[in-house]
């Protein structure tokens, strides 16, 4: 199927932009097979990460329904969240400063566990260590 620049896939109407094709001729597809397989891998990784974040969030909400019983799990989830923030911080040393949104997420990932875990310890009256030992049993 051949698509004209500036047209939708049905060949009707203006979609409001002209694709920047550089020196390549427009052949109906903007990506070749090598780029397509790399793009598909990237999309699959992003979908997998999205599913993992959804599962993590669902588990957090489920665990928060009963703080006394699930305190160990909440401490474990906060530890995972904190490690994620530290990994983002370590990548700054390797790659440099990212987009402002990732910096904001890094701050949230580092600060949230440092606030939630002490609050949870006050609510339950137990240490995080005791709750994690109980979770391991």
Give an overview of the whole structure.
- The longest helix is centred in the middle third of the chain and has 32 residues, at 33-64.
- It contains 4 helices and no strands.
- The chain is globular and about 55 Å long.
- It folds into 3 domains: 1-30, no CATH class; 31-65; 66-137.
- Helix content is 69%, strand content 0%.
- By secondary structure, the protein is mainly alpha-helical.
Quick description:
The protein is an all-alpha fold. The protein has helices at 33-64, 67-95, 100-124, 128-136.
Q: Quick check: average pLDDT?
A: 80
Q: Biggest β-sheet: count, sense, barrel?
A: none
Cα-based radius of gyration, to the nearest Å: 23 Å
Q: What structural class results from the helix and strand content?
A: mainly alpha
Strand content: under 5%
Helical run tally: 4
Shape: globular
* Cα-to-Cα separation, first versus last residue: 60 Å
Overall structural domain count: 3
Number of strands: 0
Binned, the helix content reads 55-70%
The sequence of SSEs as H and E is HHHH
Contiguous runs where pLDDT drops below 50 for at least 5 residues: 14-19, 23-28
């Amino acid at each position: 199927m051949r698509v004209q620049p500036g047209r939708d896939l049905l060949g009707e109407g203006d979609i409001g932009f002209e694709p920047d094709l550089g020196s390549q001729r427009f052949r109906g597809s903007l990506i070749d097979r090598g780029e397509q397989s790399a793009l598909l891998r990237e999309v699959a990784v992003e979908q997998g990460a999205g599913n993992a974040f959804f599962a993590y969030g669902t588990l957090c909400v489920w665990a928060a329904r009963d703080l006394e019983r699930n305190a160990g799990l909440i401490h474990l989830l906060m530890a995972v969240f904190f490690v994620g923030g530290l990994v983002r911080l370590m990548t700054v040393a390797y790659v440099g400063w990212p987009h402002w949104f990732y910096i904001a997420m890094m701050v949230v990932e580092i600060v949230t566990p440092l606030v939630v875990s002490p609050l949870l310890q006050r609510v339950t009256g137990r240490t995080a260590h005791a709750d994690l030992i109980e979770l391991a049993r």
